Amino acid sequence: MAIQRPKGTQDLLPGVVEQWQGLEEQIRKICKEYGYQEIRTPMFEATELFQRGVGETTDIVNKEMYTFLDKGDRSITLRPEGTASVCRAYVENKLYGGPQPVKLYYIGPMFRYERPQSGRFRQFHQFGVEVLGADKPMVDAEVITLVWDLYSRLGLKGLEVHVNSVGCPTCRPEHKQKLQEFLEPHKEQLCKDCQSRFEKNPLRILDCKNSSCQEITQGAPTTLDVLCEDCAGHFAELKRLLTAAEVVYKVNPRLVRGLDYYRKTAFEVLVEDIGAQSAICGGGRYDGLVQEVGGPQTPGIGFAMGMERVLAALKLSQEHQDEDKKEFLMLVALGEKAQSEGFAIISRLRKKGLPVSIDLLGRSLKAQLKAADRVQAKYAGILGEEELSKGIIILRNLRLGEQEELTLKEFEEQVLKQYKEDGNQ
Ligand code: HAM
C-alpha cells in the first residue's frame, strides 16, 4: 500500500505555494513598517516550557501535544504555539537587557493533536507577533491595529474583532469565587470537562461548546463585572485607542481564550463563512509569562493568526468579489431604434437595482454576445429591428443556451422574477 501523509497535514504544491509566499510577503512588509523584527525559535522545546507557559489545565497541554522522549530520555514537545518559545528565547538570550520594548514576529509551523476538520489541522502555520517589555494599553491597541491593517490590505471581508478583559491576579480570584457560587447549583449538569474545570479554572466553562453548559452559563458573572481599577482603566483606554484608530470592534465579555497565560486584554478576529473554525486570529496580554518561564517580571502582549484559515477566508472573499463583478443581463440591441428602446428597458431595470448593461459601441451581434460572455452575464436580451417591429424581444439564457420570445412587458417581468429567484432580493 502506498504511504500517505499523516492525518491533519497538508502537501502544499506548486500553484498553492505561491499564495503562501504572497501572504508571507505582505506579512513581512507590514511588520517592517510597524517596526517588528523576525525571530526563529526551534520547532521543538522541553515539554516543561509548555506545561508551565501554556498551562496545565488547558486542552493544549492536556490533550493536544506531540510529546515524546528523545534518545537521551528528555521529554520533548513539538511546539503547539509560539508565545512560550518567544518568552523563553527573550529570557535565555537576555533580550530584557537591551532597549525595550522588544517587538518580534514569527511565521512557522505549529503542532497540535486535534481532531482534523475543515480549517483545523495537526500541523498548521501561524504568523504571530509578541511585544515584550511594555505595559501600556497603546501596545495592545498597536498589535490589534496591525492585524486589522493586514486584513484590510489583504482585502478580507466580513471580519469581527472581539475584545475582552480577563482581569489579573488582583481581580480574578473574586471573579472565580462569584462564578463558582453561580455554577455550584448546576455542577452536576456540567459536562465532564467542565466539572473538572470547576475547581481549577472555572473561567474556561464560559467557553465550553457543549450546549447544556452554554445554557447553564447564561447570565453568569463575567470578568468585566469585577475588574480592578487598574484593569478597568487599561480596558477603557484600549477601547478609546481602537476607536481612534478606526478599528471596528465588539466587546465580548464571554471571550475566554484557551491558554492560561492571559491577563487584562484578550481578543480574537472572527470571519464569517469559513465554517466552524472561524477564528483567524487570537491573542492577548500575558504579563506574567516571562516570569513563569524563569525571567524577570516583564509585561507582554501578542497574537497569532492561522495562515491556513486566512488563505481560506481570502479565497472565499475573492469568489464573492468575482460573483459581484458578474452582470445579470446584457442587452444586445441592433440598429438605432432598437438601441434607444433597449436603453429605456435597461434604465428601468437598473432603477430596480439589477446589474444589467447595454452595448455602448454599436457593435455586431457576435461582438456583443462575446462581450456578454466576458462579463459572465447570465442572460442576454436580443432586440433587432425585426423583433422591434413585432413588439417582441428574445431572452436567452447564456448558461443553458435556451431562449424564448417575449413581449417587452413580459421580458421585464421575467427578468425581474428570474433575478429574485436567484436569491438576489
Ligand atoms: P490560539 O488561539 O491557540 O493562540 O491560536 C491562534 C490562531 O491559530 C487561531 O485563531 C487559529 O487561527 C490558528 N489555529 C490554532 N489551532 C489551529 C489548528 N489546529 N489548525 C489551524 N489553525 C489553528 C495562540 O496560539 C497564542 N500563542 C496566540 C498569542 C500570541 N497570544 C499572545 N501572543
Automatic annotation (TrEMBL):
One of its GO terms (molecular function) is catalytic activity, acting on a protein. It is found in: Cytoplasm. L-histidine binds at E81, G82, T83, R112, Q126, E130, R257, Y261, Y262. Its EC number is 6.1.1.21. GO terms for biological process: histidyl-tRNA aminoacylation. Keywords: Aminoacyl-tRNA synthetase, ATP-binding, Cytoplasm, Ligase, Nucleotide-binding, Protein biosynthesis. It is an enzyme of class 6 (ligase). SUPFAM superfamilies: Class II aaRS ABD-related (SSF52954), Class II aaRS and biotin synthetases (SSF55681). Pfam families: HGTP_anticodon, tRNA-synt_His. One of its GO terms (cellular component) is cytoplasm. Coiled coil: none annotated. Residues 8-355 form the Aminoacyl-transfer RNA synthetases class-II family profile domain. It catalyses: tRNA(His) + L-histidine + ATP = L-histidyl-tRNA(His) + AMP + diphosphate + H(+). Homodimer. Belongs to the class-II aminoacyl-tRNA synthetase family. This is Histidine--tRNA ligase. It comes from Desulfitobacterium dichloroeliminans (strain LMG P-21439 / DCA1). The gene is hisS.
